[in-house]
C-alpha cells in the first residue's frame, strides 16, 4: 500500500494472520506483475521491537510494584525526553544521576547539582 505518512519512498505493509481467514474471494484478477517489495531494515525493526518490549516491561514493573498513577505518568513523560530512565523499586532513576522518590514532586528530585538535575526538575 502507498505510505500513510505520504513519504514517496515508503510503503505500508499489511500482515494478515491466515489462521483467522475463513474464506477468500477474488474480486479482481490482475495480469500485470506487481512492483518489487521494498527491502526491510530487519535490524532497525528488531531494535524497535526490543525497545517496545523494554518499555512495556518497565510499565508492567511499575504497576506490579504499586507505583502511583502520578509516578507512572511522570516516568513516561521523562522517558519521552530522556531515554536513559529506569525504575529502582519505586524510585525513578534518570541518567544514573537523578533519583525521584515518591510522591514524585520537584522537591523529591535528588542528585548532584547540575544540568541533569535542573533539566529533570523542569520536566
Automatic annotation (TrEMBL):
<dbReference type="InterPro" id="IPR047574">
    <property type="entry name" value="AD"/>
</dbReference>
<feature type="domain" description="AD">
    <location>
        <begin position="38"/>
        <end position="123"/>
    </location>
</feature>
<dbReference type="InterPro" id="IPR019181">
    <property type="entry name" value="LSM12_ABD"/>
</dbReference>
<dbReference type="Pfam" id="PF09793">
    <property type="entry name" value="AD"/>
</dbReference>
<protein>
    <recommendedName>
        <fullName>AD domain-containing protein</fullName>
    </recommendedName>
</protein>
<dbReference type="InterPro" id="IPR039683">
    <property type="entry name" value="Lsm12-like"/>
</dbReference>
Amino acid at each position: 500500500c502507498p505510505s500513510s505518512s505520504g513519504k514517496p519512498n515508503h510503503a505500508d505493509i499489511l500482515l494478515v494472520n491466515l489462521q483467522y481467514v475463513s474464506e477468500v474471494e477474488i474480486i479482481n484478477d490482475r495480469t500485470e506483475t506487481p512492483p518489487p517489495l521494498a527491502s526491510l531494515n530487519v535490524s532497525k525493526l528488531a531494535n524497535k521491537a526490543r525497545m517496545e518490549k523494554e518499555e512495556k516491561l518497565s510499565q508492567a514493573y511499575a504497576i506490579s510494584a504499586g507505583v502511583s498513577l502520578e509516578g507512572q505518568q511522570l516516568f513516561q513523560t521523562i522517558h519521552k525526553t530522556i531515554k536513559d530512565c529506569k525504575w529502582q523499586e519505586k524510585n525513578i532513576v534518570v541518567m544514573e544521576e537523578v533519583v525521584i522518590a515518591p510522591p514524585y514532586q520537584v522537591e523529591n528530585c535528588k542528585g548532584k547539582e547540575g544540568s541533569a538535575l535542573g533539566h529533570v526538575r523542569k520536566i
